[in-house]
Amino acid sequence: MNQTDLLNVLRRWGVRVDRALNKVLPRERTPPAVIHKAMRYSVFAGGKRLRPFLCLTAAEICGGRPESAMPTACALEVLHTYSLVHDDLPAMDDDDLRRGRPTNHKVFGEGMAILAGDALLTHAFRLMAENARVPGVSAARAVEVVRVVAEAAGSLGMVGGQAVDLASADGATRGGPRARVLDFIHRRKTGALIKASLDAGAVLAGGTSKQRRALATYGEQIGLAFQIADDVLDIVGNKKLLGKRGSDRDNGKLTFPAVYGLEESRRRAARAVARAKDALSLFGKKAETLSALADYIIERDR
Predict the structure, then answer these.
(1) CA distances from 180 to 144, 164, 192 (A)
(2) Which residues on neighbouring strands pair with residue 209, listed in sequence order?
(3) What is the per-residue pLDDT for 176?
(4) Deepest in the core among 19, 56, 187, 224, taking most CB within 10 A?
(5) Which residues contact 137 (CB under 8 A, 6 or more apart)?
(6) Over the stretch 85-130, which tens digit does the pLDDT of each residue have?
(7) Which residues are paired to 98 by β-bridges?
(8) CA-to-CA distance for 40 and 299, rounded, in angstroms?
(9) Is the CB of residue 230 less than 8 Å from the CB of residue 191?
(10) Which residues in 16-28 are b (16+ Cβ under 10 Å) and which e?
(11) Terminal alpha carbon distance of the chain
(12) Spatial CA neighbour of 79 closest among 38, 118, 34
């Protein structure tokens, strides 16, 4: 599959996910309107819908119907959006732009942005629980998905990675050498939710332990490659295409180029992609799209 075909697949699934998100999020005029407007502002600010796509595709290659995982796919995008809203706050990365638009707190104020993030996070778990109402999805599978995603999103995953990232600002590291701290941050801050997205789809489809392990390895490796690529683009990327000004270097954040340099960072990303594709051998041609996605992660310009 070439990059054009992959992007067409991603766009088609993105349209379907957006339609579903429009249905499962409260309307802007639902009281209190201000919070629902703030929530929808960030959810519909654009984006690749990568995590929903991973969830739906994992369900499909594990023998399930992608549509049966749609509530959880939406939940993952809603949860991811909450993390971006909070990540942009002045106390965190202090970003003015996200996907080419003013960040949530710039439009609605810092307090409302915090509440919008809180509301998105809690709504995500409602959506995951509602996946048990889909025919063919047992309550036990839905509960396992909640466990998997909660662990990936909390202090053992994304929030934990963000905490160490904040503690490592201005180049200071706590807990070990810079390379080890960097790995700790990004396996949790970025990689954990990507890995959980794949695992959630596999669980909902009744995937085997072997399938779940293979997808977990794939998820870990593309999560690593994705973060390295983001760090590289933060330095060399076109800011207009990226839709953000790139604040990591200005904020003294611990990044792959800061630790390894640009060329070694690119080599590490390429090795991660190779390992990710190796993990897909279990699925044969059914994993063609995921294999193409791994390549795209380090070839993209935004």
Answers:
(1) 30, 12, 16
(2) none
(3) 56
(4) 56
(5) 68, 131, 204
(6) 999 999 998 999 998 899 999 999 999 999 999 999 999 999 999 9
(7) 101
(8) 30
(9) no
(10) bbbebbeebbbee
(11) 20
(12) 118
Write down the pLDDT at residue 238: 58
**pLDDT averaged over every residue in the chain:** 92
Helix (H) or strand (E) holding 13: helix 3-24
Enter the DSSP assignment of 27.
P
Closest CA to 65 of 150, 17, 135: 135
166-to-11, 80, 125, 185, 251 alpha-carbon distances in Å: 34, 18, 26, 10, 10
Structural domains of the chain in order of their starting residue, each with its CATH number: 3-299 (1.10.600.10)
User: Count of CB atoms within 10 A of residue 210's CB?
Assistant: 9
What predicted TM-score, i.e. pTM, was given to this entire model?
0.91
Query: For residue 237, what are its two tokens?
Result: 């990327």
Phi, psi of 89 (to 5 degrees): -65, 155
- Which residue bears the tokens 């819908």? 49
Nearest-CA neighbor of 49 among 73, 20, 26, 23?
A: 73
Q: How far is residue 7's CA from residue 16's CA, in Å, rounded to a whole number?
A: 14
Closest C-alpha among 144, 147, 237, 230 to residue 185: 230
- Using the 8-state DSSP alphabet, how is residue 259 labeled? H
Closest CA to 130 of 114, 142, 118: 142
- In single-letter form, the type of residue at position 187 comes to R
Tokens matching residue 212: 């779940």
Residues 6+ away with beta carbon under 8 Å from 221: 272, 273, 275, 276, 279, 294
Partners of 101 in the β-ladder: 98
